[in-house]
Model the fold of this input.
Amino acid sequence: MSGDNPSCCGGHPTENSTETNGETRRDFIFLAAGALGAVGAAATAWPFINSMNPSADVLALSSIEVDLSPIQPGQSIKVKWRGKPVFVRRRTPEEIKAADDVNVSELRDPQTDDSRVKPGHHEWLIVIGVCTHLGCVPLVNQGDYGGWFCPCHGSQYDTSGRIRKGPAPLNLAVPEYTFLSDTKIRIG
Done:
């Protein structure tokens, strides 16, 4: 007779305990299946997400270091950064004075010389060597202002890379750069 009574000590669970244990197991199975599905989706998506990262050759171009020690006063060099030419110019005291003496209010794109160089490093001007008119590469130490001259349409920039004459609407852009030492910079 003891087997006839489900609540007896025969080991048969009551109706309420079956429902609770069944729900607990079902919840665990749903949770485990959901977690396994999320892990599988992440494992499947990762190669696609990772393929959107820049390649190693692009990352190598994201910043460059330039040794300034061989550049003489009055000389400019051109380096390539992110596929664009960058002019690194070591200005003479006369060029710095000429750039400082310009009446900024008369400029098309008014910027002081101090805002285009790093404090304490006024002799160094670093600009992206792309004309802001149509993207040509200007010639160094040319034009009426001793800076850059774009032969395509006649834009002329001074020794601070500011537009002074011609159709270009903006100054030569100054890239993000930092001095690592007195003779080395990192562009980018």
About this structure: The first helix runs from residue 15 to 50. The longest strand covers residues 84-90.
